[in-house]
Design a protein that fits this description.
The complex is a heterodimer.
Chain A: H1 3-13, E1 18-22, H2 25-28, E2 29-30, E3 34-38
Parallel strand pairs in A: 1-3
Chain B: H1 3-15, E1 19-29, E2 32-40, E3 46-55, E4 59-62, E5 67-71, E6 74-83, E7 87-94, H2 96-99, E8 108-110, E9 116-122, E10 128-140, E11 143-145, E12 149-151, H3 153-173, H4 176-189
Antiparallel strand pairs in B: 1-10, 2-9, 3-8, 3-10, 4-5, 4-10, 6-7, 6-9, 11-12
The chains are: A alpha+beta, B alpha+beta.
């Protein structure tokens, strides 16, 4: 997994947020404690 | 995937411009004492018929290195899910009978205005990596029907499935002679003359 992706996931899950990874994650997945990462693009 | 799909749903999909689709996501779930709500919001340009949800193997995850570790099977982690009007909230723990089987289909209409709802629970104390695939058929927001005109595909699908049921109930309640008449009238409607039993 790419280093920048690992770092981003780490930052978000340590805040107690679920991370969702998908090329269009931000437009498809919503939630107060959800972090969507649009990857890969 | 399911035999009923090709028998009854596929003709509706082909006739009304549906397209098969799926969204496959990776989820990283932190340990949490409070369940986390997620809405899966289909593309606003379409009405979506969700036909199933499948889970990959959940695994431990190390956020400091990004390492995906050993398989994790536990009743302490899983997903509640629901779809307004179609499926009540219920618990899918990450255990083998959920992860390795696919016993029933879902036929849940979802849209931008009425998203599919998930609630993640993770009491394991561990970070978890898993994947989920949403199996979907996307329809235009309006479809043409020769009987009802332009309609919402969700409404038309309900009428269609109701018609399938009525047809088979009628068959179950009918004598052979009346069934022959049904098939003869169907053939006539297509401009074909058929006499069942005649050569």
């Amino acid at each position: 997994m790419r280093e920048e992706l690992v770092k981003r996931i780490s930052e978000e899950v340590r805040k107690g947020r679920v991370v969702i990874i998908h090329p269009a994650a931000s437009s498809k997945f919503k939630g107060a404690k959800v972090s969507a990462i649009d990857y890969p693009r | 995937m399911f035999s009923w799909m090709s028998a009854f749903v596929a003709p509706f999909v082909i006739a009304h411009g549906g397209s098969f689709w799926h969204d496959t996501i990776a989820l990283v779930i932190p340990p949490t004492e409070i369940p986390i709500d997620i809405s899966y919001v289909p593309d606003p340009k379409f009405k979506s018929l969700i036909i199933g949800l499948t889970f990959g193997t959940p695994r431990e995850y190390d956020p400091s290195t990004g390492t995906i570790g050993p398989e994790l099977v536990s009743t302490d982690v899983g997903i509640y899910h629901a779809q307004t009007g179609y499926m009540d909230w219920h618990w899918d723990p990450f255990v083998e009978s959920i992860l390795k089987t696919n016993p029933y289909p879902q036929l849940l209409w979802s849209s931008h205005e009425r998203p599919y709802q998930l609630r993640v629970v993770n009491y394991t104390g561990k970070y978890i990596w898993c994947e989920v695939t949403f199996w979907v058929i996307k329809f235009p927001r309006k479809v043409r029907c020769p009987i009802y005109g332009e309609c919402d595909p969700e409404d038309l699908f309900k009428k269609y499935m109701s018609g399938v049921t009525k047809f088979f109930v009628a068959i179950g309640a009918s004598e052979a002679e009346s069934l022959v008449k049904v098939f003869e009238s169907l053939a006539k409607a297509e401009g074909v003359t058929v006499r069942v039993g005649e050569k």
